[in-house]
Specification:
By secondary structure, this protein is an alpha+beta fold. The chain has 8 helices and 6 strands; from the N terminus they run ββααααααββααββ. Strand 5 and strand 6 form a beta hairpin.
Length: 312
């Protein structure tokens, strides 16, 4: 659906168009709607005719199948044909619901109360969230969730080609996190996590964030992904310690000399440990066995050998 503009805001003619739904999307879903109508009408009509043939003449059963199949096919045609509009309404559902609730509340309040009470209630509804920091931060966080959903849609429409029919990924919902927002998205055929990982820097620029991360939100379905949008740091913030309240203020302080931290290592200052080996042998006056320079025992000489002459 497009609306032509014959004049520019500052005069002159313009041939540009303001497009709500792309023409390619219109053609694609119109073709899908015709196919869905034909398939539904034929299949449902034949099934209804077969069932009705058991109770009446086959010719009458054929008319019954036509009367059943054609209306159901028309319903399916309408649903498929208006799906781009339904998807557009889904993108704006939070804003539509919130605006409707605010207008309904204002009308009911103005109709059932006096002007002074109405102004007082409006002042409380607007002033309390604006004056209380906790509530204000929470409202701002949820407001960013609404903004991020539309910014992601702009990313998908500008530089992400989902498929030939032009259907964009379905943006489900978003919730605030301590560092930003988390958005769940259902991808369409033609997209994958790898394709989006190469464009995370552009997505971060569009969402006015510092970084954007993407990962699968389901182990069994790769089309269900999660975007983690980070726009602030929380690890470097100053956190008040509760231990200060536990310390008794009347506790005397003890001054301690600062420890001497060594700056270098001097090997002569290191005392080598003394190792005492245990004594071997049964008696104290036994002489230790002679050893050679390399630590091995020398070979036995003939003098040390037994005299075998006494045995002859």
């Amino acid at each position: 659906m497009s609306k032509s503009s014959s004049r520019r805001p500052f005069g002159g003619k313009s041939t540009g168009t303001v497009t709500v739904i792309e023409a390619r999307v219109h053609r694609s879903w119109a073709r899908n709607a015709r196919m869905a109508f034909v398939l539904t009408a034929v299949i449902v009509g034949l099934l209804a005719a077969v069932v009705a043939a058991s109770y009446m003449h086959p010719i009458l059963a054929l008319f019954v199948g036509v009367f059943v199949g054609v209306p159901l096919g028309g319903i399916v045609w309408v649903l498929v044909r208006v799906w781009p509009v339904i998807r557009l309404l889904w993108w704006w559902t939070p804003e539509i619901v919130l605006t409707g609730l605010l207008l309904t509340g204002w009308v009911q309040l103005a109709a059932n109360t006096s002007t002074l009470v109405t102004l007082l209630v409006v002042a409380l509804v607007v002033g309390v969230p604006a004056g209380v920091p906790v509530i204000r931060r929470r409202v701002v966080a949820w407001g960013w969730c609404l903004v991020v959903r539309h910014r992601l849609r702009v990313c998908f429409a500008q530089f992400i080609i989902a498929n030939q029919s032009g259907s964009l990924p379905l943006i489900l919902w978003a919730v605030p996190t301590p560092v930003g927002e988390r958005v769940w998205v259902y991808l369409r055929p033609g997209l994958s996590v790898k394709d989006l990982e190469s464009r995370l820097d552009k997505i971060a620029v569009t969402c006015h964030a510092s970084t954007v991360l993407i990962e699968r939100a389901s182990d069994g379905n790769s089309a269900y992904v999660r975007f983690d949008i980070k726009r602030r740091e929380v690890l470097n913030a100053n956190v008040a310690s509760p231990l200060i309240d536990v310390i008794d203020p009347d506790t005397p302080t003890v001054e301690q000399a600062p420890p001497v931290v060594p700056t270098a290592l001097d090997l002569p200052d290191v005392q080598a440990p003394t190792i005492t080996l245990p004594k071997q042998g049964g008696t104290a006056d036994r002489k230790p066995a002679a050893t050679s320079a390399n630590g091995s025992k020398p070979a036995a000489t003939s003098a040390d050998a037994d005299d075998v002459s006494d045995w002859i």
